[in-house]
Amino acid sequence: MSKYTVQQHSVETLLTWVKTGQVAIPEMQRPFVWDSTKVRDLLDSLYNGFPIGYLITWQSADVGLKDGSKSSFRQILIDGQQRITAMTAALVGQFVVDKRYKRKRIKIAFNPTTEQFATLTPVIDKDSAWISDVADFVNATSTFSATKAYMDANPEVDATHVEQALQRLSAVKQAQVGIITLAEDLDIETVTEIFIRINSKGVPLSSADFAMSKISSHGLLGSNLRKLIDYFCHLAVAPHVFSDIAANDTSFAASGYLPAISWLKNDNSDLYDPTYTDVIRVAGIKEFSRGKVAALVSVLSGRDFETRTFSEELAVESFDRLERVLLEIVNQYNFQQFTLTIKSAGFVAPRLISSKNALNFAYALYLKLRTEKNLNEGEIKYVVRRWFVMSLLTGRYTGSFETAFEADIRRINDVGALQVLRDIESSQLADTFWNVALPMEMESSSVRSPYFLAFLVAQIHGGSRGFLSKNVTVGSMIEEVGDIHHVVPKNYLIKQGLNDRSDYNQIANFALTETPINIAIKDKAPGDYMSQIDAQIADGVLRLGEITTDLELEANLRVNAIPASVRTATSESYHAFLKERRFLMAQVIKNYYLAL
């Protein structure tokens, strides 16, 4: 059975489908990302008969909507949204939405003498040689009258040449565009594979893009849910656009969903700024126990996974559930309590979080546990904190993370989150992990290593002071200004012949410290700068930092996992020092995890 059909349709036919809603164009309600020069170039290609690439649509099922109407087998445009939007804007005169969610016109001018297209400017608008707005001309009641008006304004032009150019311009709407329509019964994996094979650049289409298009095609409810996701994600990053959304999308403002996200206009936290892909993943895990976005699209299409059949009732029910979970996701209390839970584990800045997937699963887990009410709030936060850190330390949601999502949520459904967490801890976080595996994993030179970040988080959680600092905490330096200092200084090692960056930039040679301390140490050997600390402890004269007692120094070295051998560390003993410190850092992380 053929998986698709290929047909040629005129631009005019295609634009009629868009205007009548036969083709769902969700991006028409989202910020238009093309600049006007790309719109100009697209018109130029149509005018000259150049191909503009195939558009790809996916036939949606005939699903009953809440208002009693049917979706009427609308085609979901899965590739070509920007081209369709550009044609609709330039040839029909339809407004687009800019990045501030304001409606605006994109006007493209045309010069019949030179046969050039250009973005309309005030100068061009005053020049009679140009037709200021192509849309006005091609949609004129009489192109003959429009042509005559141009001739009257420009009597010196070559009439024959101009008439031919304007006839070609008028014929742009008859230009043929190839449309590939994918069969309605294809699963999303097949649709994605088809897209990759026919796309000249070989760029895979995101499953989340399919999901967003699928959501948007489900009548007014779907359109509003799509906007709810988009606006929530946009406001999380740019709270100031709330007034623009409220003023410029009056239909959404009247839908009742805008108040659900209005709290974001006063929210300045950036610890968790989910994208629409993240929101879809959280919704799929929490509400549908589906780790794969493709499976969520199938559910929203009305697929019954047991009978492998289509059910209109299931599609309607799935959208009702989607609406419910999205309102849970964007709920102010839920979102802020979750981010507070993550912060309480020491993650005070987004750069400390090495896996967005781990954060997404943790939020889905938090919502699930709150809904089920099997645990109290304190127990929920305990499970979520430890699950999140566990997943970072074990790399649980790297690689085939969607499969891991699904396996974990199904196991949680069966025996409960607390039991699953205990099982994972006993099998993957036993003494061998802390004493052997983790120190080995820390043999890295990347400051983005999840293990170095986990060490910093452990310090923040414990309120640790920076290396050789008496008063300034690691947490305050992460939030404000601090230096990543080489415990055995880089320049010292280089002078001693250790020139390999992967050697002197080992994370076990890193510690967060105040900038003045880092500058004062410079390239001194550890024994030399530690002698300065000893001297100021003896006489009270500050030379390096503010530590003035043996107890303060001992405590500082302990929380920074600095072994006593730092006093005698040289280029010859450097690797032994790193091995010893990796073990101590792992123990700091272990104690932190057990204290969560």
Describe the structure.
- With 596 residues, the protein is an alpha+beta fold.
- The chain folds into 3 domains: 4-198, no CATH class; 207-347 and 361-405, no CATH class; 439-595, no CATH class.
- It is built from 30 helices and 13 strands.
- The strands form 5 sheets. The protein has a 5-stranded mixed sheet, with helices on both faces.
- Strand 5 (96-97) and strand 6 (103-104) form a beta hairpin.
- The longest helix has 22 residues, at 574-595.
- The radius of gyration is 31 Å and the shape is globular.
- It starts with a strand and ends with a helix.
- Pfam families: GmrSD_N.
- Residues 16-214 form the GmrSD restriction endonucleases N-terminal domain.
- It comes from Microbacterium aurantiacum.
- This is GmrSD restriction endonucleases N-terminal domain-containing protein.
